[in-house]
């Protein structure tokens, strides 16, 4: 998704990398996610940060003042939640599009790690993401976009990550209203969406436990609950999700498979909180 960047001077290279976005100096493109692009950037002096780099998300849709104010309120609420497992948010800016800056983690995410990961590292990162989600829920917030790409790899010991951080609050539902289905961005993101949300439910602890289950499945099995969805055809992906039952991969260990099923279960059989998910993951890590 190409993000229009107003007020940025662009280079003439094939990637059309902007030299700056607002008062952030752009270093390189980190990748593209739902509704925008991520850049590695040097923060402006006005923020007084010790960090040399931040990750800058630039949304692809133009937004007005009201949407910007709602986005800033959500980010402030996110930043106020006390959890060592949440990514820190530093700043938000309105150009023609919505821009915000957050911590940069050079080791990547569970979706695109910068180094080989052991099973224990993956399980610990997932546990930390679940604890972050629980902290948000306790503060009355829903993350809205839990998936492996938003579980960043943090800490470092001999070049390997030691934990995880939950990133990228799902602001699209505020910045792109009226796009419940196609507005989710890439069709593959539907894999991590509770079907109840596709049917019109609001994000809740319950729907986020489902998302955690789908994230655990993808991270540990390497495959989605519905196989591989057509990434360029979101409506076909949604149709497949709504017409099929999620399938737990036979290659998962018994404890892993049981946890995924507990996250996806109907009614009261589903785990009630993200904290319960985190505790089960901690048990898996301890069991080796």
Report on this model:
With 288 residues, this protein is an alpha+beta fold. It folds into two domains: 20-102, Phosphorylase Kinase, domain 1, CATH 3.30.200; 119-287, Transferase(Phosphotransferase) domain 1 (Transferase(Phosphotransferase), domain 1). The protein contains eight helices and eight strands; from the N terminus they run E-E-E-E-H-E-E-H-E-E-H-H-H-H-H-H. The protein has helices spanning 65-80, 119-138, 172-175, 195-198, 205-221, 234-243, 254-264, 274-287, and strands at residues 20-21, 24-33, 36-42, 54-62, 89-94, 97-102, 151-154, 163-166. It has a six-stranded antiparallel β-sheet with strand order 1-2-3-4-6-5, with helices on one face. A two-stranded antiparallel sheet has the order 7-8. A hairpin with a 2-residue loop joins strand 5 and strand 6 (97-102). The longest helix has 20 residues, at 119-138.
What's this entry about, in short?
This protein is α+β, with helices and mostly antiparallel strands.
Q: What is the 3D shape?
A: globular
SSE pattern, N- to C-terminal: EEEEHEEHEEHHHHHH
Low-confidence stretches: 1-14, 178-184
Number of strands: 8
Q: Supply the CATH superfamily name of the largest domain.
A: Transferase(Phosphotransferase) domain 1
How many domains comprise the coordinates?
2
Distance between the termini: 40 Å
Mean pLDDT: 87
CATH topology type of the largest domain: Transferase(Phosphotransferase), domain 1
- Count of helical stretches: 8
Helix content, binned percent: 25-40%
What structural class is derived from the secondary structure elements?
A: alpha+beta
* CATH architecture descriptor text of the largest domain: Orthogonal Bundle
Backbone CA Rg: 18 Å
Profile the largest sheet.
Answer: 6 strands, antiparallel
């Amino acid at each position: 998704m190409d993000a229009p960047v107003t007020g940025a001077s662009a280079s003439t290279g094939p990637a059309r990398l902007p030299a700056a976005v607002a008062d952030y100096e752009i270093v390189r493109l980190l990748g593209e996610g739902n509704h925008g692009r991520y850049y590695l950037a040097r923060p402006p002096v006005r923020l007084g940060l010790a960090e040399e780099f931040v990750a800058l998300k630039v949304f692809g849709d133009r937004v007005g003042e009201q949407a910007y104010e709602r986005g800033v309120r959500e980010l402030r609420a996110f930043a106020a939640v006390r959890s060592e497992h949440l990514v820190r948010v530093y700043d938000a800016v309105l150009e023609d599009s919505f821009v915000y800056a957050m911590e940069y983690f050079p080791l990547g995410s569970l979706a695109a790690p910068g180094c080989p990961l052991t099973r224990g590292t993956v399980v610990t990162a997932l546990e930390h993401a679940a604890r972050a989600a629980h902290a948000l829920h306790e503060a009355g917030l829903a993350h809205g976009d839990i998936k492996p790409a938003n579980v960043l790899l943090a800490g470092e010991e001999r070049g390997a990550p030691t934990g995880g951080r939950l990133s990228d609050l799902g602001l699209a539902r505020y910045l792109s209203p009226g796009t419940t289905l196609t507005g989710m961005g890439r069709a593959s993101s539907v894999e991590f969406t509770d079907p109840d949300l596709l049917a019109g439910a609001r994000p809740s602890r319950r729907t986020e436990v489902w998302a955690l289950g789908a994230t655990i499945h993808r991270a540990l099995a390497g495959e989605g609950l519905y196989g591989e969805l057509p990434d360029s055809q979101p409506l076909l992906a949604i149709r497949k999700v709504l017409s099929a039952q999620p399938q737990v991969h036979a290659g998962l260990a018994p404890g892993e498979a049981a946890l995924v099923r507990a996250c996806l279960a109907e009614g009261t059989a589903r785990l009630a909180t993200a904290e319960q998910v985190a505790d089960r993951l901690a048990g898996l890590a301890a069991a080796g």
